[in-house]
Specification:
Order of helices and strands of chain B: HHHHHHHHHHHHH
Number of strands of chain A: 32
Largest interface: A-B, 198 and 136 residues
Shape of chain A: globular
Oligomer: heterodimer
Helix content of chain B: 25-40%
Number of helices of chain B: 13
Number of helices of chain A: 3
Helix content of chain A: under 10%
Structural class of chain A: mainly beta
Largest sheet of chain A: 26 strands, antiparallel, barrel
């Protein structure tokens, strides 16, 4: 919005707000006995700073004025004919509008519009001149020099490597630095989601109802995607794969259709439903030219690459649910469901060099069936005892065919991961995932008296997975839980609970090229223990104090490499106090801590070293909130404040040991001794947000609202801090051959004020 | 094998007990019925309006107050459909004057205040009409077991905050302030902004899915907005296909993209590749004492996702999820 337009808008809206005479005239014609719930709010707000992150999901990204627009209205007549209208954030990119109408108990209709922005970051840069396109182009003149002088013969690898390192790479790096300095362009990582939906509900007979809805949703904008180009074929320190984070064009459409026929009997209820979801991606691939030079003095610099983007897919689901009261104290519910997932997007060729090989089939013709079943019985054989049993069945039957595909590492190099030039020697066979999961859940709850109860539960999970690359075919998990609730005095509730579980898998098979001691975390043998307590104290019906604490520990009993252990601690203090009928206060403090340990090792025979390292991760997050509101002060004023402060700190502590090994046989020659390790900086986020508002009831139908919102946000993240011209400067005037987006760690201070008039009608 | 047999024996016994009890019509003193019986005769709306005109004028603007809809309380005994017969209440009130008549003793079913009726009695009234459709799984749902009264979240006489997308979360945060705290973290869904609300994903009345989720599985829930991740892909990343929550949190995280941990470490929970010479592509990411820093690409930026499409690939040459 231009400054001139902003001023005009401000002047117009402020004059409207401050001269409510016309509205008052309308008010005089229709006085109501009770305050109406129908209200329209219109006003103007002002955002002090450009702060992209502040407006990530609400659209308030730019300095300047914006329109405040909200509406809430409904009406019923004596025949139960009704309409309802709800609109929020109508002046922003996060607007929502819904209109319902019909005759209650007979038929109802709705139409809905919703827009959700996701403005992720506006500090990213790229050398491509057309971010958002499916064919990313480098600017004119973006090229690199050929190798100077006499290039050593490729057969002399040592000499060639020295030539590249000392002579050619410095030239290329200098050129890259100059090119990026001249050509980096900013682009916004932003997407906008828009949805339009309609629906209806028809009451066919007294207990039958049909409901249906459909929606069309679009998601458009620019996001990011990692693009790997493939390594130079020179076997030296520059053999690493070139790559870049690329601006990814997003242009998705999703159509959804839901329909359900339901029966609401007094003792029996059931529902038969269909759900369909059809996803279309208007972009099938992303092509780009490598912005990072190829260090192979014999190779081409400006190599092309192409990535496949998310394929079109469909999901269709049929389900039936039954609920039946077997007796006044026993209920049975059952569910059966079949879903079909399909995907048949035409394949891209193996490589931009379309002569590589021919595809075994044009598209995947992927087809997956999901079968779900559920049976649940709850009963109270006696007043104090409640029993329940539940069985769940979940099967993924993947009908997608397997075939042999030629593997080329990336478009930049036609060969396999080991650098073989002939890709046909490295066929890969896709291995679709099927699984079958069963769960039995039994619980018993015994209420000793009105002050004490005990709940016990047992859960058994049996999962089978079926694909050739399985590390574990079957996992079985047993879990026992208990919860004791006691009310020592009428104002105090105390809950103590605990859970212990054990997951055990069948024989673990190590995948090719995987460390034999690794146990994939989600399949690994696991002992889990959880304990917790909560106290709720309510000395009066106006005051409520809650305390909750929980501790969870996962011990991966058979894992020496990978995730070995994780712990979670959390606590919450919560106080709500209704001081008087019109004055409320609340405060809370929440703490979360996640700890885990990853272990790994590296044996470099050529160097004669055997390294072991461990990473101890610790993430801590604290939030404090305080709120206060007062209604009807002097019968005219309402006011409130809401303050939240959150601080998160993540830390990785590295420890390592090293032992000498024989440079030929790899045999251990000595003990492991601690070695000095480099440490990473903390990852930190601070958020301080205060919202203040006051509302003045000018007349029965008119109120003014003044609001102020302060927010400070800062992050410290070594993953995005420290790049120069989008690359990581290395020692010896070399670079990493990878181009990042050069984003800044986010940091803003924002002030927003708003003035609006609320009109009841 | 032996322990499995024991387990099946216990399971069988439990189920037998369950089935047996399901066929028993327990002679349970129904507290709701007792309350209704204690209330005396139905007195009609006009009697209620003598003192409660304000509540009456509010409810007739809401769905429960529509007498033309045969399903509503106002098509039956109006106020007394939900509050029970008012005769005794009126008699007691007449005797006690302005002194607060004990509503429970008077037989009136009360939903708020210091003398609210037992939660079970309150909820039974609501379930008389609301045990179908999205409330079919209320029995034995977490909120039912924890004795959350329907009126703990819903208001009947005026627009209910929990039924308005803008204010719904406020109601949930009354008990779930830990979730509120998570929405202030670095990476979240648009929950604070009211663009994603609790009921978009959860059915607070119970569901057939885990964690009271609306859909039948966690992944189905995520695909409601992220259908592009549904596949099936030519090259699947199996844990992604099975369970989004293995890598992502849902309400808020201190790491980007709602990841549970810093990216590379998250991947290393399941990946420790080893090469023919004993070294490995993935194993070396964090040998931070190694002074060769060209490996920075593996943890800077988007770490592993700098090169890999971690949700799966449909490129015929993408088995390593590079394209």
């Amino acid at each position: 919005m231009s400054k001139k337009n902003t001023k005009t808008l401000l002047a117009t809206l402020i004059s409207m707000i401050l001269t409510p005479g016309a509205i008052q005239a309308a008010e005089a014609t229709g006085v109501q006995a009770e305050p109406s719930v129908n209200e329209v709010e219109i006003g103007v707000g002002y955002i002090e700073n450009d702060a992209y992150r502040f407006g990530r999901y609400n659209g308030m990204t730019d300095e300047g004025a914006y329109i405040i627009g909200n509406i809430k209205a409904q009406s019923y007549d004596e025949n139960a004919d009704f309409w309802k209208l709800r609109g929020t954030n109508l002046g922003l990119d996060s607007r929502y509008l819904r209109f319902d109408a019909g005759t209650q108990g007979s038929q109802q209709f709705f139409i809905e519009y919703d827009k959700t922005p996701d403005y992720e970051n506006d500090t990213a840069t790229t050398p491509f001149i057309n971010p958002g396109s499916t064919n990313l182009l480098l600017p004119e003149g973006y090229d690199f020099s050929s190798a100077p002088g006499t290039i050593p013969d490729p057969s002399d690898e040592k000499k060639l490597a020295a030539y590249v390192t000392k002579t050619y790479a410095p030239i290329l790096n200098e050129e890259l630095d100059a090119l990026l300095d001249a050509h980096l362009l900013p682009f916004d990582q932003k997407t906008e989601r828009e949805r339009v939906g309609i629906g209806a509900k028809l009451h066919l007979k007294s207990r039958w109802q049909f409901s249906g809805s459909m929606s069309h949703e679009t998601l458009q904008g620019t996001d990011w995607i990692g693009g790997a180009m493939g390594p130079s074929t020179v076997d030296n320190i520059f053999k690493w794969t070139n790559g870049a984070l690329l601006p990814e064009p997003i242009d998705y459409e999703t159509d959804k259709l839901d329909a359900a026929l339901t029966y609401h009997g007094k003792e029996t209820q059931f529902e038969v439903a269909y759900k369909g979801s059809l996803f279309y991606n208007n972009n099938t691939s992303l092509s780009w030219t490598d912005p990072v030079p190829n260090y192979d003095p014999y190779g081409e610099h400006l190599r092309s690459g192409r990535i496949s983007l998310e394929p079109d897919n469909q999901m269709h689901q049929l389900s039936a649910v039954l609920g039946h009261m077997l007796s006044p104290t026993s209920r049975l519910t059952a569910l059966g469901s079949v879903s079909m997932l399909t995907q048949d997007q035409k394949f891209l060729p193996y490589s931009v060099d379309e002569t590589v090989d021919s595809l075994p089939q044009d598209s995947l013709d992927g087809e997956v069936f999901l079968y779900r079943g559920q049976l649940k019985l709850t009963t109270r054989p006696m007043r104090k005892l409640r029993l329940s049993a539940q069985y769940n069945y979940d099967e993924r039957d993947n009908k997608t065919s397997s075939n042999s595909y030629t593997y080329t590492l990336a478009d930049g190099v036609l060969g396999d991961a080991t650098g073989e030039a002939d890709p046909s020697i490295n066929p890969r066979i896709n291995d679709p995932l099927s699984y079958q999961k069963q769960k039995v859940d039994l619980t018993a709850n015994y209420r000793f008296n009105s002050k004490m109860s005990l709940r016990g539960g047992y859960q058994y999970n049996h999962d089978k997975r079926d694909h050739d690359d399985d590390q574990v075919k079957t996992t079985r998990e047993h879990k026992v839980s208990a919860k004791f609730k006691v009310k020592p005095v009428s104002q105090l509730n105390l809950d103590l609970y605990g859970e212990t579980g054990k997951r055990k898998g069948s024989t673990y098979y190590t995948r090719a090229h995987e460390h034999p001691d690794l146990r994939v975390a989600y399949l690994a043998d696991l002992d889990r223990d959880k304990v917790g307590a909560s106290i709720n104290y309510m000395p009066t019906h106006r005051l409520n104090l809650g305390l909750t604490a929980e501790y969870l520990k996962d011990d991966y009993t058979d894992s020496e490499i990978g995730l070995t252990e994780s712990k979670q601690r959390s606590g919450l203090v919560n106080l709500n106090y209704q001081i008087t009928d019109s004055i409320n206060a609340h405060t809370f403090y929440n703490y979360e801590e996640f700890e885990s340990n990853n272990a790994n090792e590296n044996r470099e025979v050529e160097k004669g070293t055997y390294d072991r390292w461990e990473a101890d991760l610790k993430d801590r997050s604290s939030s404090f909130g305080l709120g206060f509101s007062i209604d009807g002060l002097a019968n005219k004023w309402d006011a409130g404040v809401d303050w939240v402060y959150t601080r998160s700190v993540g830390n990785i502590e590295m420890t390592g040991t090293q032992a000498p090994i024989d440079k030929i046989t790899g045999v251990l020659l000595g003990d492991f001794v601690p070695v000095e390790t480099q440490q990473f900086s903390d990852v930190k986020t601070d958020l301080n947000s205060v919202e203040l508002w006051t509302r003045y009831q000018y007349s029965d139908s008119i109120a003014y609202k003044l609001s102020y919102w302060y927010e400070h946000y800062s992050t410290q993240d070594w993953a995005v801090d420290g790049t120069v011209n989008n690359y990581l400067p290395l020692e010896n005037n070399t670079i990493d051959q990878y181009l990042f987006l050069g984003e800044d760690a986010l940091d803003y201070t924002q002030h927003v004020v708003g003035l609006s008039v609320n009109v009841r009608f | 094998m032996r322990s499995s047999q024991h387990i099946y024996k216990y399971l069988f016994t439990f189920l037998l007990l369950l089935l047996q009890s399901a066929t028993i019509t327990a002679a349970e003193p129904n507290s709701l019925e007792a309350l209704i019986e204690a209330g005396g005769k139905y007195v009609g709306t006009q009697a209620c309006r003598q003192c409660h005109e304000s509540q009456h004028s509010q409810i007739i603007r809401e769905s429960h107050g529509q007498a033309s809809d045969a399903r509503t309380p106002f098509a039956k005994n109006s106020c007394e459909s939900c509050h029970g017969p008012g005769e005794k209440h009126i008699i007691l009130f007449a005797a006690a004057g302005d002194k607060d008549p004990a509503t429970i003793e008077s037989g009136l079913i009360s939903y708020a205040g210091a003398k609210a009726s037992p939660v079970e009695a309150q909820n039974t009234v609501c379930m008389e009409c609301h045990q179908g459709g999205s409330m079919m799984q209320w029995h034995d749902s977490l909120h039912e077991i924890e004795e959350v009264p329907c009126t703990g979240c819903h208001t009947m006489h005026k627009p209910s905050k929990v039924m308005d997308r803008e204010t719904e979360a406020e109601v949930c945060y009354t008990c779930h302030n830990d979730i509120r705290a998570q929405t202030y973290q670095k990476s979240t869904h648009a929950i604070r902004e009211g663009k994603v609300v609790c009921s978009d994903c959860h059915n607070s009345h119970g569901s057939n899915g885990p964690a009271m989720l609306e859909q039948l599985s966690l992944n189905d829930n995520c695909y409601e907005c992220h259908a592009e991740k549904r596949g099936p892909y030519l090259w699947e990343h199996y844990p992604v296909t099975e369970d989004c929550s293995l890598c992502h949190r849902s309400h808020g995280s201190m790491h980007n993209f709602l990841l549970k941990k810093q990216g590379t470490q998250l991947c290393q929970q399941c990946h420790a590749q080893i090469g023919p010479d004993g070294t490995g592509h993935i194993r070396t990411f964090y040998d931070a004492w190694d002074k060769d820093p060209k490996r920075g690409r593996s943890f800077l930026g988007r770490n592993c996702a700098n090169c890999h499409k971690v949700h799966g690939s449909n490129h015929p040459s993408g088995p390593n999820l590079l394209r």
